[in-house]
């Protein structure tokens, strides 16, 4: 019987077909140039293979998501087994199915505090969009109809639906429209760039003061929630000053504003714990959103976790929860999530990350001695390298130089995929990297940066 899997094999054939595919978050014009696109055709463990037969270390873990590594039979078999028993049923109306139910229960046991209720969706963007929708509905039901505004931050990335892009840092929606009038952006908590002439403690005080001022200005009675990534990811891997999230949550509690943690990247082991909110940042969110590592990317799945208290209100009498997506909690995705978590537990992956992730972090930090490396930042398997033209002034290279892309291209030639983001290079590899692979990534990055630096005529030192 036809399988539909008569796939193009050569690079030429793949890219000819790919002319019809619109990539995401890409310079679509730049992609028209020969050699701009990379087709990945196979993957195993921490490695991927491109269509020219090159084996590359997956330094970005798919897209911050292939936490247990590629090709794990346990997950693939669980998906196949689930599909052969129940290919699809929804969690709409009165229906449920065992895989979604069991995964919701499992997440409730892993999540901190009373985050015992789980609404599934298909992407992190939708989980965040849904968090706000659910809170709006919650306040409607409480008769507090003005409580609709969202506090986010400059530098945040919360997705690209109409609402989640509005919660994302404003430069990312340049040239596009977004939900207007709902989101207000607080200061970016990046001490190295924004905290000139202050101690880190003073910088933290200033951030909290900025938040307090914005709340007073907008009126707490008009604000539904604060949303924040524990460590900002796609905005440049920004670790806030120690104690920041706790102070933010205290301020939220003071003003009766819900605290939503976007753990799309930080959950499922990347920082050494299933959830980072409590274990790493000492906070108890009212909601946590997750995606990516929940299935290690083997299936699309996201979730919005909420407290019993929020659930109590939205499940009270006289109302219908008019929110949800057909494929949310898809049996195959839920099975992937269950198998992924079981594998992480059996192999103690979060615990191992506390050791190997620290080694990865320190290996990357050691690149800080290179002239054009301004800051190496992040934690465990979530790292960013910011390049500067001048270390003392932190002055950047001209944007057109695309320094991150230059280093990423060089690294790819040497067998490592890293993700360029303007003048930053991001690394978010699978959590199962070995010590040897970590050392290899360190040396590829050092060689790549040094070679790019040597080739820059303006840096002819
Ligand atoms: N939130 C964070 C912190 C993310 O990093 C991302 C994606 O990178 C999202 C939300 C959006 O998730 P998705 O791309 O699955 O919609």
TrEMBL record:
Keywords: Aminotransferase, Pyridoxal phosphate, Transferase. Its cofactor is pyridoxal 5'-phosphate. Belongs to the class-III pyridoxal-phosphate-dependent aminotransferase family. The keyword Transferase applies. GO terms for molecular function: transaminase activity. InterPro entries: Aminotrans_3, Aminotrans_3_PPA_site, PyrdxlP-dep_Trfase, PyrdxlP-dep_Trfase_major, PyrdxlP-dep_Trfase_small. The keyword Transferase applies. The lineage of its organism: Bacteria, Pseudomonadati, Pseudomonadota, Alphaproteobacteria, Acetobacterales. This is Adenosylmethionine-8-amino-7-oxononanoate aminotransferase.
């Amino acid at each position: 019987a036809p399988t539909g899997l008569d796939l193009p094999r050569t690079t030429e054939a793949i890219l000819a077909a790919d002319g019809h595919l619109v990539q995401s978050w890409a310079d679509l014009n730049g992609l028209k140039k020969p050699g701009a696109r990379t087709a990945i055709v196979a993957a195993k463990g921490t490695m991927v293979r491109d269509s020219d037969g090159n084996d590359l270390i997956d330094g970005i873990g798919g897209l911050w998501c292939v936490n247990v590594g590629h090709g794990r039979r346990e997950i693939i078999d669980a998906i196949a087994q689930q599909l052969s028993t129940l290919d699809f049923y929804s969690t709409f109306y009165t229906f449920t199915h065992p895989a979604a139910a069991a995964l919701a229960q499992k997440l409730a046991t892993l999540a901190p505090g009373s985050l015992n209720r789980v609404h599934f969706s298909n992407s992190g963007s939708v989980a965040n969009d849904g968090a706000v929708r659910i809170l709006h509905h919650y306040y409607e039901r409480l008769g507090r109809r003005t409580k609709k505004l969202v506090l986010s931050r400059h530098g945040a990335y919360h997705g690209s639906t109409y609402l989640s892009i509005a919660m994302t840092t404003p430069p990312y929606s340049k040239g596009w429209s977004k939900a207007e009038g709902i989101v207000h952006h607080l200061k970016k908590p990046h001490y190295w760039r924004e905290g000139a002439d202050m101690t880190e403690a003073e910088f933290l005080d200033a951030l909290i003061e900025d938040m307090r001022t914005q709340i007073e200005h907008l009126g707490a009675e008009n604000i539904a929630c604060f949303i924040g990534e524990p460590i900002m990811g796609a905005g440049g891997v920004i670790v806030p000053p120690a104690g920041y999230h706790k102070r933010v949550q205290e301020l939220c509690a003071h003003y009766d504003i819900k605290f939503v943690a976007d753990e799309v990247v930080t959950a499922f082991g990347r920082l050494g714990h299933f959830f980072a909110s409590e274990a790493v940042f000492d906070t108890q969110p009212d909601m946590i959103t997750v995606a990516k590592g929940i299935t290690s990317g083997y299936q699309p799945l996201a979730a919005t976790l909420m407290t019993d208290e929020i659930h109590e209100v939205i499940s009270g009498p006289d109302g219908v929860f008019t929110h949800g997506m057909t494929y949310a909690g898809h049996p195959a995705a839920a099975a992937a999530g269950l198998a992924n978590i079981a594998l992480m537990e059996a192999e103690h992956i979060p615990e191992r990350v506390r050791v190997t992730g620290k080694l990865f972090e320190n290996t990357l930090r050691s690149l800080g001695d290179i002239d054009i490396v301004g800051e190496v930042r992040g934690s465990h398997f979530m790292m960013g390298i910011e390049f500067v033209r001048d270390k003392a002034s932190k002055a950047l290279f001209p944007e057109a130089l695309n320094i991150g892309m230059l280093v990423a291209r060089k690294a790819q030639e040497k067998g490592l995929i890293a993700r360029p983001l303007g003048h930053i290079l991001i690394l978010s590899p699978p959590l199962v990297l070995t010590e040897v692979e970590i050392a290899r990534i360190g040396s590829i990055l050092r060689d790549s940066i040094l070679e790019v630096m040597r080739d820059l005529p303006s840096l002819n030192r």
